[in-house]
Amino acid sequence: MYRVPQKLLAFVVLGFVFNTLCFAASWRLEKSITRGADGISMHYPLGMLYDSGRNKLYVVDSGNDRLLSFSDKWEPVKVFNAGGKLKLPIYMERDPEGNLLVVERSDNVIKKIELKTRRITAFPLFRKGRPVLIDRIAKYSKGYLVLDRISGNVLVYDFKFNYVRDIYPNARNFKGFFDIKVKGNTLWGMEVVSGRIFAIPLGGGSQKVIVPQKTFVEPVSFEVDSSGNIYVLDRYLKKVLVFSPTGAFKYSFCREGFREGELYYPWLLLFVKDKLLVLDEGNGRVDVWSK
Amino acid sequence: MILRCFVFLVFVLASFSNLAAASNCFKCHHKKEIFKGKVHEPVASGKCYRCHLPHVSRYKGLLKERADRLCFECHVRFGKELKKAAFVHTPVEKKACLRCHLPHSSTHKALLVKDEKELCLSCHGELKKKMVFVHKPFRDGKCTVCHDPHFSRNMVFVKNMDRICFKCHGNRVKLKASHRYGDLKRMNCVGCHNPHGSGKRFLIKDFSHKPFAEKKCNLCHKKGGVSSSVCVSCHKGVEKSFNHLHNHQLGRVRGNSCLACHNPHVGADKNLLADIPMRMCQSCHPETYKQKRESLYVHPEWSNCINCHAGHGSDHPAMLKGDGNAVCVRCHKTQGKFTHPVGKEVLDPRNGQPITCVTCHDTMGTNFKYNLRLSGEAALCIECHKNY
Questions:
Q1: Is the distance from CB of B353 to CB of B347 less than 8 angstroms?
Q2: Which of A114, A253, B56, B243 has the fewest CB atoms within 10 Å, measured from its CB?
Q3: Which sign, positive or negative, has the C-alpha torsion B12, B18, B21, B26?
Q4: Do B121 and B101 fall within a single domain?
Q5: Quick check: is B261 in a domain?
Q6: Does B228 map to a domain?
Q7: What's the mean pLDDT when you consider all of chain B?
Q8: Same domain, yes or no: B25 and B103
Q9: How many distinct structural domains can be found in chain B?
Q10: Is the CB of residue A217 less than 8 Å away from at least one CB of chain B?
């Protein structure tokens, strides 16, 4: 009498496990980037930028106060510390002229580094007279989008760092963004704690909200692939959780550990072409995952 | 009719057999010594065999099973509810029922081993301090008026957190008169009042924000706005304490992110923290409690989070007050001098990062002695020493 339901249950469970394993197994670790061109290991890296024009990956090696560049084959190219003038860099971007913009946490400024003239200019940012705690910066067609850790809003600045306006979603109980990405003319943002994902068109239009169907512990970063799937990095769970474009949970991969492909204190996700880069602050490396 | 007679006979015989068995027991184990005050039901009905074996047993007191398992054999519903509970009182979690209850009889309610207050304070010694103004239920030793001693939906084991105060303090007119600007429905009573006692009238917490003490409400409230800018306009130096790789500036959490941890009016310490660190931190980091609950070994200072973690900002993961060595050797002084090699020169072969105390230890809780991440017998060592 109980045989049929048991078989059915076993079938469903096995199907689920198989499905999960198949999806998870489709991601394989291609490479672990652990050190710069000088052979020194990264320590507490916190920022990544891929320059598609130059085909280079930049990693902000916060613990060593330096920037590292890598080729698109993930080989180390250069190490740059601005003559020892970087203090706790956490993120970076390039301006339209190709100069480096480095977010420095110690002085809470954006440092513009003109490589040709070797001139460094610091820009503290303000919003309505109050200082901004600069966390992330992203370039878009009309200026920069800066994530302010105090308000949790994205602040729009022109290319001369004049404040323009705030961007935040029209959502109840919005608690602020924790991570942002700019894709085309859309600002994507992940809400602190809840992990809700918002897509806000920068040229105007209606926003989109994706509520991942999973409870996170400490979601710190996210990415969106070409099919619209959402990837959320949970720093406490040490996992990348993958959701469909509607927010349905699909599968997760990675686990806690110190070896390559394992995560200790992961911090940031970045898609470079079809590869998923996972920056792990605790293990001091960038794991490159490909399908 | 025959069936009825048979059932009746069975019951009568069963009762007689119980009493007969019990009367045997009570030949040596005198009732006078066992029957004191309120008697546990199986004892009263002479069912000694429910818990004890008459001849031999591998458990102390000739028990049939381990004491904790025995209790749950009868208290099945309690066991089921316990499994679902969000927060479980430590002795219950450890299934140490006999820590608080007597198995046979007691002169105290609920078969408690001691008077309720005396029993609670035997662990919660921090509440023994003298207070000028004391909350009546606490003074009378009626801890269970407010607390559920077994499990709860909140970490302070308060029964029905939102309404418990209004059970006694239900006079809305009187309350409204003394809380003119507050919305009674949304009010967090224990935010300002110490539910046990205080040095101030109305059990208001001992430390006051200066403008509040001086009744200069408009100093903050007139400035309006919901951001932390209201706070940093006076506490200027504080802004820089967040200029670290990791910080607790978290957007609009509770409107003003300062208020996520601090009470703007009164507090139990000079930093006007909204609660004791353990409870306050867990309100956002409940996973730490889960880890503790699932671990056999946790750091003895586990509950005093800000001993090791920075409240505002830190340049280290987990917002530790120093790197994985510096933060530990403040207390573990000898380990700073004599230990497995650690420091910048000693790199972990798995990730090339400097080896620190937290490479091998996880102070938040593990299942291995000394809070090791893996068994110290071998598993942990061969992670790095492959050919050992």
A1: yes
A2: B56
A3: negative
A4: no
A5: no
A6: no
A7: 87
A8: yes
A9: 3
A10: yes
> Last residue of some domain: B204, B234, B264?
B204
Q: How far is residue A146's CA from residue A123's CA, in Å, rounded to a whole number? A: 12
Instruction: Report chain B's C-alpha Rg in angstroms.
Output: 28
Q: Between residues 285 and 304 of chain B, which touch chain A (CB distance below 8 Å)?
A: 287
Residue among A153, A176, A265 whose CB faces B250 most closely: A176
C-alpha–C-alpha distance, residues A192 and A35, integer Å: 30
Query: Do residues B53 and B64 lie in contact, with contact meaning Cβ atoms separated by under 8 Å?
Result: yes
B353 within a domain of the structure (yes/no): yes
Reported as a pLDDT band with limits 50, 70 and 90, residue B283 is confident
Judged by a CB distance cut-off of 8 A, whether residue B13 touches chain A is no
Task: Report the distance separating Cα A40 and Cα B151, nearest Å.
Answer: 51
The residue among B113, B137, B172 that closes a domain is B113
Q: How far from the centroid of its chain's Cα atoms is residue A79's Cα?
A: 21
CA-nearest residue to B229 within chain A is A130
Based on DSSP, count helices (H) and strands (E) in chain A, helices before strands.
1, 26
B93 and B108 share a domain?
Answer: yes
Tokens of B33: 């010594």
B316 to chain A: closest CA residue: A44
Interchain contact, B318 vs A285, CB within 8 Å = no
**Looking at residues B306-327, what average pLDDT do you find?**
94
Residues B361 and B351 in one domain: yes
Testing the interface with A: which of B223, B245, B282 to mutate, by most A Cβ within 10 A?
B245
Give the gap in angstroms from C-alpha A191 to the nearest C-alpha of chain B: 9
The answer to whether the CB atoms of A152 and B252 lie below 8 A apart is yes
Distance (Å, rounded) from C-alpha A233 to C-alpha A268?
A: 7
pLDDT of residue A190: 97
In the block, tokens 């001139």 appear at: A119
Tell me the two tokens of residue B277.
């660190």
Strands B207-208 and B266-267: antiparallel
Query: Measured between beta carbons, which residues in chain A are less than 8 angstroms from residue B245?
Result: 44, 46, 62, 88, 90, 105
Cα separation, A150 vs A127, in Å, equals 11
* One domain for residues B126 and B195: yes
Top residue of A43, A87, A105, A126 to mutate, by most chain B CBs within 10 Å, is A105
Count Cα atoms within 13 angstroms, Cβ side, for A200: 20
ipTM for the predicted complex comes to 0.89
**pLDDT (tens digit, 9 = 90+) per residue, A164-189?**
999 999 998 898 999 999 999 999 99
Contact assignment for B249 to A150 by CB distance below 8 Å: yes
- What pLDDT sits at residue B286? 87
Structure tokens at B199: 């040095």
**Residue B108 and residue B187 in one domain:** no
Q: Does B314 touch chain A (CB under 8 A)?
A: no
Say if the Cβ atoms of A284 and B353 lie within 8 Å: yes
Q: Does A197 touch chain B (CB under 8 A)?
A: no
Interface mutation vs chain A, best among B243, B249, B351, most A CBs within 10 Å: B351
For residue B70, the one-letter residue type is L
Classify residue B289: in a domain, yes or no.
no
Q: Domain of B335? A: 294-302+318-383
Q: How far apart are CA B200 and CA A248, in angstroms?
A: 53
When pLDDT is cut at 50, 70 and 90, the band that residue A147 belongs to is very high
C-alpha to C-alpha distance for A77 and A131, rounded to whole angstroms? 36
Chain B residues touching residue A41 (CB < 8 angstroms):
347, 352-353
- Does residue A138 contact residue A145 with C-beta atoms inside 8 Å? yes
